[in-house]
């Protein structure tokens, strides 16, 4: 691909919209994960007793919340993959067809 064609693609409104959408989507998922993880760290730092609440004979709230964080990360990863496969890839293919 020559530099003129590359420049044309980079300046196209469809490509700029795609980059902006991908960036915004990535930031949303990143901030969601940071919010959950940093929230957990803040609870550990300022209210350890809250996480000591028993949830059964050999289980406490900290383990349940930790597993919830892992599950949440899988869910948002799956949501991002779904978005990428169904929206981002189709937008990339449209731009490819255009050029």
Provide a compact summary of the structure:
Helix content is 86%, strand content 0%. The chain is mainly alpha-helical and 99 residues long.
Provide an overview of this structure:
- This protein is mainly α and about 100 residues long.
- It has one domain.
- The protein has helices at about 5-10, 15-45, 50, 60-99.
- α2 (about 15-45) packs antiparallel against α4.
- The longest helix is centred in the C-terminal third of the chain and has 38 residues, at about 60-99.
- The protein starts with a helix and ends with a helix.
- The mean pLDDT is about 95.
Layout of helices and strands:
Layout: H1 3-11, H2 13-46, H3 48-51, H4 61-98
Helix pairs in contact: 2-4
């Amino acid at each position: 691909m020559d530099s003129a064609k590359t420049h044309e693609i980079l300046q196209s409104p469809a490509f700029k919209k795609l980059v902006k959408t991908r960036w915004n989507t990535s930031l949303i998922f990143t901030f969601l994960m940071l919010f959950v993880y940093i929230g957990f760290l803040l609870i550990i730092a300022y209210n350890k007793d809250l996480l000591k609440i028993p949830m059964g004979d050999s289980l406490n709230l900290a383990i349940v919340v930790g597993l919830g964080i892992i599950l949440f990360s899988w869910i948002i990863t799956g949501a991002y993959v779904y978005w990428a496969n169904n929206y981002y890839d189709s937008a990339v293919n449209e731009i490819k067809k255009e050029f």
